[in-house]
Amino acid sequence: MLKDELLHEGISDGFTLLCFLKRHFHLGDANSWWWPSFLSKEVRNGVEIEGSTHEVSGLYFVIASILGQNTKYENSFHAIKSLYEFLYVRLEGDLDSKRDFSPLTWNDKCENIMWNLDSSATPQNDNNDVILKFAKTSLDSKIESTIKDSNSTPPDPLPQGEGETFPTSKWESKNKLRHVERKRNISSVMLSECETSIKCKTFLKKDSQTIQNLDSKKDSSAEPQNDGNVVIQDDNKRHVERKRNILKLDSEKNMESNKSQNLDSQKISLDEVKNLAYPKLALISTTRFQNKILEILSNENLHLISEIIGKAGFHNQKALRIQMICRNILKDFGNFETFYDEVSKEWLLSQKGIGNESASSILNYALRREEMVVDSYTHRLLCYIGYEFENYEDMQTFLCNNLERAADLYDFEIPLSQIMARLHGKIVEFSKIAKLKRL
């Protein structure tokens, strides 16, 4: 048996352990880090077989590390999938290519309420009140149809890999209307933001018209003016120049912002995303959206986040931990890029609900640093082969011994941080197959 073979292998450090496990477990191509994401090209039994050629947002793994605490992988994946489906709806204004995706599954009808309004039926006029009234009417009709559909018999289950079936358990059926109500509340917020945006645009349009009127008055004033009129004319001139400068600065900022977004959007091909298992979730898993997601999760209703990640277990605690770490990242680092470069393990351990294992997971998988992850599977394996350690750091030291030599075991260039991730993955896979007992 595999367990007996391990006992006779003579494991003395992390390198010899990796040599043994590598003969029995293949964890994928050169881009695989074992832990999959929505950008993974192929995932099999929760293992990343073919990794992404694009940079995955580290924030994804920060959230996944918290959701994965004290639960099975399947539960944590379901929770992060639900959370990113919600984030996709919130980010729909920043997605220029959302209508290029294939139609949503029956399970995603509630998302349709938010952004999939029939654009061909939208009144083509400049009356803002009419447009808002149309949007609200269409929204209400879609909510009513969703409620009716939720009370009807769900369709046949989808084949595996094509989407999730509609929840059929008694507990989940009881929450269908709560899900619809939650979507209704989100929709109201979005409509309120839309109304505010329209008012701002109307104000800017009137302000621009005022500037044009002042310019025309200035050009038409050819006759001599008295002293009082000269003062008024000078004030008007300064007002016009000030407005021009403001509009010029806003225009330059918009051009820089659009240029930055265009550069970011070129990092990932839409055709490649379409071929993935969850294309719309893969799109927002890129680094382009990580700061926007930070802001959303920092300001979102905590009870709503808790309901969305319910499958992960201990959802109230985990929702609070996710929101607090997002707020503290923005507070102490300003953005995720600075957090990625400057955060220390001590800072992570100071966050509520982040222990040694979660901190190591974030450093290794999210931030791509040389940090060995030690979990309960690792502890079981080391005890099985006769090693006992007093603390977490001693287990890390044992596994890191001579591990730099492992680069010679691969026929491609691989960083030490990725070797550590793959060793952790092989330990987990071995412990599952060998069914090592809990300690």
Give your account of this protein's structure.
- This protein has 20 helices and two strands.
- Mean pLDDT is 75; it is low at 97-139, 152-174, 221-225 and 262-266.
- A hairpin with a 2-residue loop joins strand 1 and strand 2.
- It is elongated.
- The protein has a two-stranded antiparallel ribbon with strand order 1-2.
- The relative contact order is 0.14.
- The protein is mainly alpha-helical and 439 residues long.
- It starts with a helix and ends in a 5-residue tail after the last helix.
Break the fold down into its secondary structure elements and pairings.
Blueprint: H1 2-7, H2 14-24, E1 42-44, E2 47-50, H3 58-67, H4 73-90, H5 109-115, H6 128-151, H7 170-174, H8 176-220, H9 227-265, H10 270-274, H11 279-283, H12 290-299, H13 302-308, H14 315-333, H15 336-342, H16 345-349, H17 356-366, H18 376-384, H19 392-400, H20 416-434
Antiparallel strand pairs: 1-2
Query: Secondary-structure element order, as H and E?
Result: HHEEHHHHHHHHHHHHHHHHHH
**Structural class by secondary-structure content:** mainly alpha
The number of E-state strands comes to 2
- Characterize the overall form: elongated
